[in-house]
Design brief:
With 98 residues, the chain is mainly α. The chain has one domain (15-97). The chain contains 5 helices and no strands. Helix 3 packs antiparallel against helix 4 and helix 4 (43-73) packs antiparallel against helix 5. The longest helix is centred in the middle third of the chain and has 31 residues, at 43-73. The two termini are 30 Å apart.
Length: 98
């Protein structure tokens, strides 16, 4: 069964993982501003904040990248299939990455 996607529903249900990645990156903005303040106040702490920021971006986006791989490979029809019981291998990987 082939689903005909309108442009808005395609953005929400097929490429919605990209919006989630963008949201995670935007939520790091306060950390970036804090890093700038700490860098001037105490340069020794700056490397720790930098590591924290990198970990936040990598681990925070890991879940969404797993979701994107399943969606873009075609093994999961839409974003909605990730919620509920894992029936497909890609949705099981999503639940395991939680």
């Amino acid at each position: 069964m082939t689903i005909e996607w309108s442009p808005i529903s395609r953005l929400m249900f097929r490429q919605g993982w990209l919006l989630l990645v963008a949201g995670t990156c935007l939520s790091a903005a306060p950390m970036i501003s804090q890093l700038r303040l700490v860098r001037h106040a105490d340069p020794v702490m700056a490397s720790g904040y930098r590591k924290l920021l990198r970990a936040w971006l990598v681990l925070g986006n890991l879940l969404w990248v797993v979701m994107g791989v399943g969606l873009e490979s075609g093994s999961v029809p839409s974003l909605v299939h990730y919620f509920g019981r894992p029936r497909l291998c890609a949705t099981a990987a999503f639940h395991l990455s939680l």
